């Protein structure tokens, strides 16, 4: 709240923005007339960044451009990229909150596994988890492999399918399509198109 001063027996607020607006050249109150002493001294947190990395929003398949501000190798802000022809600097609510995806203390950073009929999750090292996945993929592919179907050569497996998520970008979807097709899977989709 501004200071209260006196002018004879009338009271008026000292640094009241409306008075600055009326007395100065900022008649619409969109510039200096609307600024407080505190707001004049404020600086954007992006000014402190050591570097800015161009990126793509990880959520849907639109591919909005993002600018990731980094200080001391930590993400301090993520904003829309005005140079992006897709989004012209704008982000949806999910894209605007993507800093939380990277920096949240609740983010899982280890492989979590719950054994069949288990009631508790356990941490696995990445090599063990990758070996388990490889074993299961090979077993499923072998078990459900079809060379022919109704007299036609198909060379496929119906035991493996893929449903990609909205956080995948085009490059990841391309690689997944190549991988699953090479494994013989034909049921490959992305939920962003559903």
What's the β-strand tally?
Answer: 10
Envelope shape: elongated
Structural class: alpha+beta
Helix fraction bin: 25-40%
Overall pLDDT confidence: 84
User: What is the radius of gyration?
Assistant: 28 Å
Contiguous low-pLDDT stretches (5 residues minimum) are 1-6
Q: What is the element string, with H for helices and E for strands?
A: EEHHEEEHHEEHEEHE
Strand content: 25-35%
Give me the oligomer status. single chain
Largest sheet report? 3 strands, antiparallel
Number of helices: 6
Quote the distance from N terminus to C terminus.
53 Å
Strand order of the largest sheet: 3-4-5
Task: Tell me what you see in this structure.
This protein is of the alpha+beta class and 194 residues long. Helix content is 27%, strand content 30%. It has 6 helices and 10 strands. The protein has helices spanning 17-23, 37-41, 93-96, 98-103, 126-143, 170-182, and strands at residues 4-7, 10-13, 51-56, 65-71, 74-80, 111-113, 122-124, 145-149, 152-164, 185-190. A 3-stranded antiparallel sheet has the order 3-4-5. The chain has a 3-stranded mixed sheet with strand order 8-9-10. The longest helix is centred in the last third of the chain and has 18 residues, at 126-143. Mean pLDDT is 84; it is low at 1-6.
